[in-house]
Amino acid sequence: MNPLVRFISLLSLPLVASAHAFAAPTTIEDTQDVDHVMHAFHEAVVHHDGERLSALFLPQANLFLNVLGDDRWAAARAKSPDALKVRVSSPAEFAHYVTTTKSALDPVHSHLQVLSDGIIATVYFDFVFNTDGRPGNVGNETWQLVKGEQGWRIAALTYSSRIPGSQRTSSP
Fold first, then answer.
1. pLDDT tens across 107-149, in order?
2. Chain Cα centroid distance, residue 76
3. 59: phi > 0 → left, psi -120 to 50 → alpha, else beta; which?
4. Where are the alpha helices (DSSP H) in the chain?
5. C-alpha dihedral over 44, 157, 10, 105, to 10 degrees?
6. What span, in angstroms and rounded, lies between the C-alpha atoms of 50 and 93?
7. Is 171's pLDDT higher than 60?
8. Residue 153: how many CB atoms within 10 A of its CB?
9. Does the global pTM surpass 0.70?
10. Which residue, 147, 172, 156, 166, is CA-closest to 68?
11. What is the mean pLDDT of the chain?
12. Distance separating alpha carbons of residues 162 and 139, to the nearest angstrom
């Protein structure tokens, strides 16, 4: 395998944070490699730490896309006929939600695939976003990351949304 390109597929290995082990690492520890970014993202969400979550993104990053699956879009249109299938948000809006919600949050990532040349990386995985112990959203997610002077940062995040229990409508 080309030493500049790494491809990892970790089958059904969720990232799980322990509340007892939580100690806010420095940004350098959070961003030394892609796996650390993934773990830091999970811990920041679980512990409602919007500041730490925001630090994982490039300061200029503003691409945070949610693409609704057909089931989720139909439900959204039933509530509001002008509901969009592709929702544009930002890391700042997500960090605000994480910081202000009273709900217990636990994003579980599995089937991770990382493709990187050591300078840029793409991460693709399945996720279940648990809210108060129940799956509130399921789908697939992809991150675009770049390695700058301050380590790895998320440049863009795109995820699909399906109603929990629904079938995937497309293959990866």
1. 999 999 999 999 999 999 999 999 999 999 999 999 999 999 8
2. 22
3. alpha
4. 27-30, 34-46, 50-55, 70-79, 91-100
5. 30
6. 10
7. no
8. 21
9. yes
10. 166
11. 83
12. 6
Q: Which residues pair with 161 in a beta bridge?
A: 68
**pLDDT tens digits, residue range 58-117?**
988 889 999 999 999 999 999 999 999 999 999 999 999 999 999 999 999 999 999 999
Q: What would the two tokens of residue 52 be?
A: 């730490």
- Report d(CA 129, CA 133) in Å as an integer: 9
> Which residue is listed with tokens 């969720």?
14
| Residue 43: both structure tokens together | 């811990």
Biggest alpha carbon distance in the chain?
51
For domain 6-12+31-161, the question of CATH label 3.40.50.2000 is answered with no
Residue 167 has what pLDDT?
A: 58
Position 61 scores a pLDDT of: 81
DSSP codes joined into one string, 137-153: EEEEEEEEEEEETTEEE
Backbone angles phi, psi at 89, to 5 degrees: -135, -160
Closest CA to 65 of 166, 161, 167: 161
